Amino acid sequence: MFRFQKWYFLLALLLFLVEVFIALFINDKIIRPYVGDFLVVILMYCFFKSFLRVPVLKVALAVLLFSYALEALQHFNLVDRLGLGSFKLARVVLGSSFEWMDLLAYTLGIIVVVVLERLRLSINQVRLGTTSSV
After folding, report:
1. What percent of the chain has pLDDT over 70?
2. Is 0.85 topped by the overall pTM?
3. CA–CA separation, 134 vs 132, rounded Å?
4. In this predicted structure, what is the pLDDT of residue 132?
5. Which pLDDT tens digit goes with each residue over 23-65?
6. Cβ neighbours around 83 below 10 Å, total
C-alpha cells in the first residue's frame, strides 16, 4: 500500500509552487478563486498518490469528498470558530467563505484527474500489451 512514486511527488511539488504563486501574486476574480481550487484537488491527489499505492478512483473520491467537507465547513465559519480568523495563512489554506462555484471547480479538477489517469493507463496497457482497470 505504501510506495513512493517520484512522478506524482514532482507533480505535487510543481502544483504547490503554482498555488503559492497564485496566492502571492494574483488577486483577480477567476484565477485565484477558481483555477486555484481546480488545481488544489489535483495537487492533493498527486500528493497522496506520491506515497500510497491505492486505486485512482478511491484516491480521487477521497480528495473530492474532503474538499466538499472543507467547503461545507467554510459555510459554518470554521476559521473563526477555531480562533484563527486573524491569521491570513489560515484563511487562505482553510478558506473563509462558502462558494457553490468552488464545488464545481473541485469536481472539474477531479474529473480531469480521472480522465488523465485513464488515458495514462490506456497508453501503458498498449505499451505493455496488458489490460487493467482504473
Report:
1. 96
2. yes
3. 7
4. 57
5. 889 999 999 889 999 999 999 999 999 999 999 999 999 999 9
6. 9
Grid cell for residue 91 = 484563511
Please count the structural domains in the chain: 1
The number of angstroms, rounded, from the C-alpha of 34 to the middle of its chain's C-alpha atoms is 12
State the Cα–Cα distance between residues 121 and 3, nearest whole angstrom: 18
Cell of 52: 500510497
97 in any annotated domain: yes
- 57 Cβ contact partners less than 8 Å away, ≥ 6 residues apart: 114, 134
124 phi-psi bin (left φ>0, alpha ψ -120 to 50, beta other): alpha
Q: Is 101 part of a structural domain of the chain?
A: yes
Q: Which residue do the cell numbers 467547503 mark?
A: 71
